[in-house]
Write a structure and sequence with these properties.
The structure is a homodimer. The first copy, chain A, has 13 helices and eleven strands. Chain A has helices spanning 22-29, 33-40, 48-61, 67-74, 94-105, 124-133, 149-156, 180-193, 209-224, 241-253, 266-278, 298-301, 312-327, and strands at 79-85, 111-117, 138-142, 161-164, 175-178, 199-202, 229-232, 260-263, 288-293, 306-309, 336-339. Chain A binds a DNA duplex through helix 2 and helix 4.
Chain lengths: 356, 356
DNA sequence: AGCCATTCCTATAACGTTATAGATTTGTGG
DNA sequence: CCACAAATCTATAACGTTATAGGAATGGCT
């Protein structure tokens, strides 16, 4: 308005070579750098016409704010850190989780740094590092323990975070979890429907909270239905395959062998089946296996496996959204989420009278 | 976005509350900020005693350089971007690759951002983004194509990168690859040793260069040993499990069925075995399967599978080292690497005379 | 004593951004 | 026609770092 509209539309020969900054836009529009900044943030004290002009040239020049500049000035990193446990990683769903979080972050300003920590490391180490050096605006972590010092640490410091898996600490924070109790109950009812009489649970390691959920759901539902059951607690679904294989074979060789096996992971399912088959038992007729699976792998190998699906992608998406809301102090659509499995994938009909 | 220090649980002297900067050290030592900076960089024009003092107080205060400051001033991001294809991702080794790269980066100043790109995306998109916005000092990408525009793009712009997998473009750049030709030859010789007479290769999709290597090694070595062979090129090891399953079953039902199957992936191995078993064939006696595997999974299920191991962790470590050397313009220990498989894991002895 | 090289340190500016306070113009009411 | 508010813009400083040019001592040499 008050600026004489001295026909700028400057021809920028070299300026196309360098990455445009606010300065570039300021020069091109004849405005001050601060004005350009405020215009792009849609500040109320900038004229509509000016905003339009600024946005236009910004788009035209392909302007993208310099992350280092923003970060230095504001302290906002626009980074989300994904802190992953590598402890249990034979074909787990880690890449799925990574992908879905990255996908949910598409189109936002957030980059995702991934920080696995290894068995020789204190799990607190990456967390402390991130919080102390302010390397990220928020953290997503997996493999929570019932009492998880990482959760306490971040909660105490008001550092935004979200967890894949719950804790037992009575702390309110964003999380997403698979309802393993519901899963186990559903599995037990499935066994009952198929007329199975002796159930066996190969549970995950007791240190994990979800192992307790699963064990409780399994035990309680089996008791409810008057089904004899055993919880294998010296082997776990995280044991090496051979161990599970052996444990299952031993039980099948004993009197009163199980005819329904519930397992918490794909690998444990495979090992269990292999263990039973070593003794000539036929999956689907002599015994059933119900497994929780995130990837469609068991079906390829033993079409008789009964599968209850876990959607890890949903978890990732949820966690990303919830964490971003937490960081930006917006109310999230949902702060805590639980995947409640209801669908049982029966696989092929039981092979009755098939050749051994 | 400084967090207001609301309700500090820990009472610390103010100096401890804020993260120490060069300024803090300067104040503590009575030196100028520039001096502190130079001392920490071990510049030649700073006295030894001063350096010692500076290093000491820096350590004592727990000083860590502010990444945004460094990045803004120098343009160095200290970030390595991992650009991952999600195309082929049923239990692939992605998480392994991520972990090993992260592990190799431990103790360095580099953070790792992970950017998967999805089927609906142009593979160039993340690459262009990173190069244009200078979001990273270098890129590691996987799933290279024989003629890969991403490689050309980065090479043209002298942007540091390293690839998991080779290309066919005659461009010199850091890479690591598994020698699939050697793998296939070794597999063929293994079949020969076991007296197999008709070989079948379930090859990876032809668009991948490594599929060509594998196919060539397979065909040439089989011809050399006068073994009849077939390369299945309508199904690939990336096809859905059922497809491979079906293809294998069809071939076993036909006259002159194969008795040695070479597959490029764990999933394809499982499907192949399942397909043959559907017709009552027994793995290890009626036919053999040789598979390349990064994770120890097949052994759990079918102990008769013959496995040649691929060490993805080695790839990740190599790529990280090579890329960092490239970024820092140091001569790397090795710029290109090829994993040459020599060890065959035979599994259990063939089950002769075992029950069907 | 004067000069110069050497050694060690410091002041300054700049990277790109945004928060703050203030400047300028225009409109409004008295 | 003047004070005063509203609308719109700008100047400045600061975030933490490092590159550059320069300054202050010290010692050696003529």
């Amino acid at each position: 308005m008050r600026q004489p509209p001295e026909a700028p539309l400057v021809v920028l020969p070299d300026s196309e070579l360098e990455r445009p900054t606010l300065k570039t836009i300021a020069a091109a529009t004849g405005l001050a750098i601060a004005t350009v900044s405020r215009a792009l943030k849609d500040a109320p004290d900038i004229g509509e016409e000016t905003k339009r002009r600024v946005r236009e040239t910004a788009a035209q020049l392909g302007y993208r704010p310099n992350r280092a500049g923003v970060r230095l000035r504001t302290g906002k990193t626009n980074v989300i850190a994904l802190v992953l446990s590598t402890e249990t990683d034979v074909m787990n769903h880690t890449s799925r989780l990574i992908y879905s979080i990255a996908n949910a972050l598409r189109g936002t300003a957030y980059h995702m740094i991934v920080m696995p920590f290894f068995p020789d490391q204190d799990p607190m180490e990456p967390i402390r590092y991130i919080v102390e050096t302010e390397s990220a605006d928020g953290v997503i972590l997996n493999q929570t323990k019932p009492d998880d010092p990482r959760v306490r640490y971040m909660k105490d410091r008001h550092f935004p975070f979200a967890t894949h898996g719950r804790t037992d600490m009575g702390i309110d924070h964003p999380y997403f979890d698979f309802d393993n109790e519901a899963f186990a109950r559903l599995a037990v009812r499935t066994f009952a429907e198929r007329g199975r009489k002796r159930l066996l649970l190969i549970a995950p390691p007791r240190s994990h909270l979800y192992a307790r959920h699963m064990t409780w759901g399994f035990s309680d539902e089996a008791a409810l239905l008057n089904l004899p059951f055993e919880v294998a607690d010296n082997v776990t679904s995280d044991s090496g395959g051979e161990v599970v294989d052996e444990a299952v074979a031993t039980r099948f060789a004993a009197p009163n062998p199980p005819d329904g096996i519930l397992v918490g992971s794909t690998t444990a399912a495979m090992s269990s089946i292999a263990g039973a088959e070593r003794l000539g038992r036929v999956l689907g007729s002599d015994f059933d296996v119900v497994a929780k699976e995130a990837i469609a792998l068991l079906r390829r190998f033993r079409r008789q496996t009964i599968i209850i699906k876990e959607d890890v992608g949903r978890a990732g998406e949820f966690l990303a959204r919830a964490l971003v809301a937490e960081i930006e102090k917006r109310p999230p659509e949902a702060r805590q989420g639980l995947e409640n499995p209801t669908k049982v994938d029966w696989g092929d009909p039981p092979r009755t009278g098939e050749k051994t």
